[in-house]
Specification:
alpha+beta; Heat Shock Protein 90; Ribosomal Protein S5, domain 2; formyl-coa transferase, domain 3; nine-stranded mixed beta sheet; elongated
């Protein structure tokens, strides 16, 4: 087949396939144009998931008659001052959005520039331009797109349902609204009730207001301000405390020079920063804004401009990790997933309030007829002493000894009550410590709490003078399959840095000669098996630091106070004081909460006192 030049209309449709993937792509391109035009308010409307109609109206600078004639031609743009593609300070710059949309849909543009006596309108249908005509519009630009993909019917087959396409449009607008809190956005359509995000004040407070409007009040209440800067690169934004998590990473947003992008860089950096706070199957919610010299960012990587490439990606990743870690550590107890709200909601009083329709008349209520009283004939209470029940009647209320092995502590000292974690009062089920504070009570999981303490000690020892080790008088021999033995021996140096010295002891066996002093007496076999399981999941690309922290976390779990161990009052209080002095003590190194705090006001609500 000979080589031939394709017709211009076919060329435009092929180019449109790179830019216009679905209705949300059209909305993204048009809203970005409105932002670049200096709009302070942008209204978005869609019908039929965007395939029937899309309307974008803004109050930006608009276009002159001459600009409007060029705007729908390929590679015509107002976003580049010169031919320098490295100095890009706008959201759009390819000059393909409007001609690509006009090639596959019916496009209508009405615009007015401040220097023009009136507005002008232009339409494009299947790539064919109409004449420019006078129109009525007071300010800005209005773009109408209808019958999307009518010129390329095959593309319609790949669109999803109207509801799904409408949700994709909503997500695009959400991201752009998060990037520009100074602009008011209104999103309406047949598929949804109108949503308006008012323009926010400049600065961090305004940004948090916009993020809270979009991501929800839970994010606003748990957001932690983060910031890091080096070599002209600034990373700032807000990260949710570990108490707010999601089952996937869709709640992580990255903006580079005001451009919403999707980048694997943020996923790895956020995972590393939150590694000590969350379980493996939970993901935090963050919104990070990166500002850098445009020459240090390649925004020309993807046709739809959804990806960027950094000249120094390592620096950006390090700044993200540092900003998040510093913010989480700074907030201290706020970072813990130990709010009592969930605990309060889990209580279901057995004697719930009765509906008003069944409320007894005043003075006629009989507790013996309450729902919790057993059915059957009413017992006789004759002979009951005035001061209370007779002994034989009281026996009916004897529930036996407490099911938990409880040790009650005497009246605590006033100075301990005033401490953040209060004073230990008792131990329940030899697992949970109950402490009293001035305005409530705290329930501590002794194993999880001590696990975090040991973990932080191991990290501190590693960063200072190395982990102290103890030599076993008789080396402990651990038998495992040969593959597991080889996996552990390959990490001998990393394990040794934590005071765990192992060596081969023949086929399918290892000899443990030294263990970390912090762990005390430990089951070396169980520890090595757990370490081997974690190592099997490691990716070779995983940084050494993360591998070492995995080792420390596993060791801490084996070296901490186990559930089921009875603690004396002084030991319980000592654990509470250590928790107060240990960073990130609100959760163990697996991300589970170490304690739950219940305010007295919340407890009073449970009993109807408030």
């Amino acid at each position: 087949m000979p080589v031939r030049q394709l017709p211009e209309q076919i060329v435009n449709r092929i180019a449109a396939g790179e830019v216009v993937e679905r209705p949300a792509s059209v909305v993204k391109e048009l809203v970005e144009n409105a932002i670049d035009a200096g709009a302070s308010r942008i209204d978005i409307f869609s019908d039929g998931g965007g395939r029937r109609r899309i309307g974008i109206t803004d109050d930006g600078s608009g276009m002159t008659r001459g600009d409007l004639a060029l705007a729908v031609d390929r590679h015509a743009t107002s976003k580049l001052d010169d031919e320098d593609l490295l100095e890009i300070r706008t959201l759009g710059f390819r000059g393909e959005a409007l001609p690509s949309i006009g090639a596959v849909a019916k496009l209508g543009i009405t615009t007015r520039h401040a220097t023009e006596p009136h507005s002008w309108s232009l339409s494009v249908e299947g790539g064919v331009k109409s004449k420019i005509m006078p129109a009525a519009l007071s300010q800005g630009t209005r773009v109408e797109v209808s019958d999307l993909f009518y010129a390329t019917p095959a593309r319609l087959k790949f669109l999803k349902t109207d509801r799904t396409e409408a949700e994709a449009i909503r997500e695009v607008v959400r991201r752009l609204a998060m990037a520009r809190p100074d602009i008011a956005f209104t999103l309406a359509g047949e598929e949804r009730s109108p949503v308006t995000w008012a323009a926010a004040l400049p600065g961090a407070a305004g940004r948090l207001t916009r993020l809270g409007d979009i991501l929800g009040a839970d994010f606003r209440s748990s957001a932690i301000d983060v910031r890091s800067e080096r070599d002209g690169v600034v990373v700032e934004g807000f990260a949710a405390a570990p108490s707010l998590t999601r089952a996937n990473a869709l709640g992580q947003y990255l903006f580079v020079n005001g451009r919403p992008v999707r980048d694997k860089l943020i996923l790895g950096a956020v995972r590393a920063a939150y590694a000590d706070y969350l379980p493996r199957d939970r993901h935090p919610v963050v919104a990070l804004f990166v500002t850098a010299d445009p020459r240090e960012v390649d925004a020309n990587v993807h046709p739809a401009k959804t990806e960027v490439r950094f000249r120094n990606a390592g620096l950006v990743r390090a700044l993200i990790v540092h900003a998040l870690k510093e913010g989480l550590a700074r907030e201290g107890r706020r970072t813990a997933a130990n709010s009592g709200d969930a605990a309060i909601r889990s209580f279901h009083p057995s004697f719930a309030p009765r509906p008003a329709a069944f409320a007894p008349e005043p003075g006629n209520w009989d507790w013996r007829r309450s729902p919790s009283y057993p059915a059957g004939p009413m017992p006789s209470f004759e002979g009951v002493a005035a001061a209370g029940f007779a002994e034989q009647d009281q026996a009916a209320f004897d529930v036996g000894a407490p099911s938990a092995d409880v040790l009650f502590e005497a009246q605590p000292a006033a100075d301990l009550i005033g401490r953040p974690l209060g004073a230990a009062r008792t131990q329940l089920h030899e697992t949970y410590i109950v402490s009293q504070t001035r305005d409530g009570l705290i329930v501590v999981d002794q194993h999880a709490a001590h696990e975090r303490i040991v973990y932080e000690r191991l990290k501190a020892s590693l960063s200072h003078n190395g982990v102290q080790r103890q030599i076993l008088l008789i080396p402990e021999v651990v038998e495992m399959d040969e593959a597991t033995v080889e996996r552990l021996l390959a990490r001998t140096e990393e394990l040794s840095s934590f005071g765990l010295a192992i060596e081969s002891f023949g086929p399918g066996a290892l000899a443990v000669r030294e263990t970390p002093s912090l762990l005390g007496k430990t089951d070396a076999g169980a520890l090595l098996r757990d370490l081997a399981e974690h190592m099997a999941e490691w990716d070779e690309a995983l940084p050494l630091e993360r591998r070492l922290l995995h080792v420390a976390a596993t060791m801490a779990c084996h070296g901490s106070v186990r559930a089921g161990r009875r603690l004396r009052p002084e030991e319980m209080n000592a654990l509470l004081r250590e928790m107060e002095d240990t960073p990130n003590s609100g959760q163990c190194n697996h991300g589970r909460p170490t304690y739950v705090e219940l305010k007295l006001s919340d407890i009073e609500k449970l009993f109807g006192r408030r």
